[in-house]
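Annex B.
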Amino acid sequence: MCFLKSISDDVRFAQLEFRKHTKAKRLVLGCFLACIAAVLQVAGGFLPGIGYFISPFATLPILIGAMFSLQMGVMSYFLTILLLFILFPSELVIFPFTTGLLGIGIGAAFSFFKKRLSIIFVGAILLTIGIMSLLYIFHFPLLGPAVSDSFSFLSAGSIFIFSFLYNWLWVEMALFFFKKLKTVIT
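ECF transporter S component: predicted structure tokens.
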């Protein structure tokens, strides 16, 4: 079964190779990934319509950074939050709890786990917590009028199932992009 397959050792090998680079090179790459994530996140505001399909890809730079080094991923995450605060403050509510948290969660899971199911499950839990925090704690209408701001197990279960499927897609995409980028960066 696909979920129980172990990920290849390419991620671990690339992490070891990445640590051999100078701190300046790692810092520049982290800043570059943060800039890309910020631009992708604000695409929904600058390009109405098509930009909403582009903005979920803000997860990818944070995810790639966290796959190489958890420290660089976290730095890119907070730098992206700072850039969003300057460029487009309305996206500041969404990024830390959804796309950014998803990138950090999956990237960290790649460092700690070897099975796809574990990686997908960690990302799904974090994304579910982020979405439910926005909906039920901050009362931010992230999903529009489809989900009320009062807690229900049906909506929580639906959010978790969506998060699980969405994370599965991101894990497979991350492995694909990582194999392509590994030769360039390492």
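The longest helix spans residues 153-185. Residues 8-185 form a domain with the Arp2/3 complex 21 kDa subunit ARPC3 fold (CATH 1.10.1760). Further annotation is deferred to the next reporting cycle.
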